[in-house]
Amino acid sequence: MSTAPDPEPRAPKPSLIFDDPLDQQSSDDTDRGWGERPGTDGAADLKRFLDEKPPHHL
User: Fold this and answer.
1) Residue 16: left if φ>0, alpha if ψ -120 to 50, beta else—which one?
2) Comparing C-alpha atoms, which of 48, 19, 21 is closest to residue 36?
3) Contact indicator for 16, 22 with CB cutoff of 8 Å
4) What angle do CA 14, 20, 25 make, to 5 degrees?
5) SS (H, E, C) 11-48
6) According to the UniProt entry, which residue ranges have a biased composition of type Basic and acidic residues (predicted)?
7) Please, what is the end-to-end C-alpha distance for the chain in angstroms?
8) How far is CA 32 from CA 9, 22, 26, 53, in A?
């Protein structure tokens, strides 16, 4: 009779999580999620506005 080694233990299957997803903060809830740059001053904001302004807003 041959004795085979025990198979390696498998990782447990992911369990279902029934938490309320609205209780967690998403990246959209932060300034960084909306593309804000931390630590900018008014001049940098104006330069960014002028750089990103569409051509029809001249």
Assistant:
1) beta
2) 48
3) no
4) 100
5) CCCCCCCCCCHHHCCCHHHCCHHHCCCCCCCHHHHHHH
6) 29-58
7) 87
8) 42, 19, 11, 20
* Cα–Cα distance list, 35 to 14, 31, 47 (Å): 33, 7, 15
Count of other CB atoms within 10 angstroms of residue 48: 13
CA distance 48 to 43: 9
pLDDT tens digits along 12-37: 877 887 888 788 887 777 777 666 66
Q: Is the pTM of this model over 0.70?
A: no
